[in-house]
Design goal:
The chain is mostly beta strands and 149 residues long. The chain is built from one helix and nine strands, in the order ββαβββββββ. Helices cover 7% and strands 62% of the residues. Strands 1, 2, 3, 4, 5, 6 and 7 form a seven-stranded antiparallel sheet that branches. A two-stranded antiparallel sheet has the order 8-9. Strand 8 and strand 9 form a beta hairpin. The longest helix has 11 residues.
Length: 149
């Protein structure tokens, strides 16, 4: 993965990340955020995967149902955010819509994607600090606007 700082002003930074064939997107973006101390940002991406996993949150079960996409797909849209989890580490929350060769789509919570041939990611950081906290009754972590850094 390669990256470049595109802009930096008043505590806000904008980066472009270019992931290469074979890179795993979720871990790559998360590692980048961790190494660069990003605590609040929006994320958008386009590109393609050789295989991916998305998921659907089953509210009654309080867990994600994994939906493998074992074929080449176009990342038509990927949007989300970066916050910090209960341990102080970067927490990526991303949703994706993947286009398949027959023109159909699959979408959901993004879990994993193996890049082929590229993924172009824009990370727009803000000077804020967002905390994502585990919600015991829900089974997932959500941004907590009432918590301090």
């Amino acid at each position: 993965m390669r990256h470049k700082l595109l802009a930096s002003d008043a505590g806000e930074r904008t980066f472009i990340l270019v992931l290469d064939e074979g890179d795993e997107a979720f871990s790559g973006i998360s590692t980048f955020a961790e190494k660069n101390g990003i605590t609040a940002a929006s994320v958008t991406a386009i590109g393609a995967f050789s295989r991916a996993t998305i998921a659907f949150f089953e509210f009654e079960k309080k867990s994600y149902k994994k939906l493998p996409v074992p074929e080449q797909s176009e990342v038509l849209s990927a949007i989300g955010d970066i916050a910090v989890d209960d341990e102080g580490k970067a927490s990526l929350h991303l949703h994706a819509v993947l286009g398949l060769s027959d023109g159909s789509t699959k979408g959901g919570h993004f879990m994993e994607g193996h890049v082929r041939p590229t993924l172009e990611v824009i990370v727009r950081e803000t000077p804020a600090h967002l905390r994502r906290r585990k919600q015991p009754g829900l089974g997932i972590a959500l941004i907590d606007l009432g918590s301090p850094n």
